[in-house]
Amino acid sequence: MKTNKHDLADSEAICEAVNRPNMRFVSIKNVGQQAFLSMHRVRQGFVKARTAQANQIRGLLSEFGIVIPQGIRSIINRVPDILEDAGNDLPGSMRHLLKQLNDHLKQLSRQIEELELQIKLWHKENEASQRLEAIPGIGPITLGHCLLPSLIGPVYW
Questions:
Q1: At what angle do helices 31-62 and 92-125 cross, to 10 degrees?
Q2: What is the pLDDT of residues 25-80, one digit of tens each?
Q3: d(CA 6, CA 104)
Q4: pLDDT tier at 145 (50, 70, 90 boundaries)?
């Protein structure tokens, strides 16, 4: 139901959904499954933030005529050299700002690595996760994208 969101309308929608024979419902998640889903969602948010930060650094540097190839590693590797290069005519305020942005980028990378470690530890303890890993191209990190739909299920509201 997309309009008139209130308890009575929600109740009617639930009753209608229950009476449909082909309706699939969201399975109830236990606390462990919810924690697993949360780790993947937070990791995904950090990855998006890191990509945005890298693009911002690349864009700001391009305004000063400094071009960096795409990729997180190329930015992390090149920015310290750019900061130390006195010949690139970057003002001191830009150097300070660039250092802050680069530190933030590194912090996001560390947070992603920490979450990936937690996900891998969870994977080692989960039998269903280990069985799914036998599928080519599936690992502990990509496994979250496979399990998310099965743990959450389709939502029909």
A1: 160
A2: 667 778 877 888 889 999 999 999 999 999 999 999 999 999 999 899 999 999 99
A3: 42
A4: low
User: Which residue pairs from 53-57 have beta carbons closer than 8 angstroms and sit at least 24 positions apart in sequence?
Assistant: 53/101, 53/104, 53/105, 53/108, 54/105, 56/101, 57/98, 57/101, 57/102, 57/105
Residue identified by tokens 């470690």 is: 117
Residue 9 CB neighbours (<10 A): 12
CA distance to 56, 67, 94, 101, 104, per residue, from 63 (Å): 11, 9, 11, 16, 20
pLDDT tier at 90, thresholds 50, 70, 90 = very high
Helix residue ranges, H only, 20-138 = 31-62, 72-84, 92-125, 127-132
Ramachandran class of 78: left when φ > 0, alpha when ψ lies in -120 to 50, beta otherwise: alpha
Number of Cβ within a 10 Å radius of residue 75: 22
The residue ranges of every structural domain in the chain are 28-115
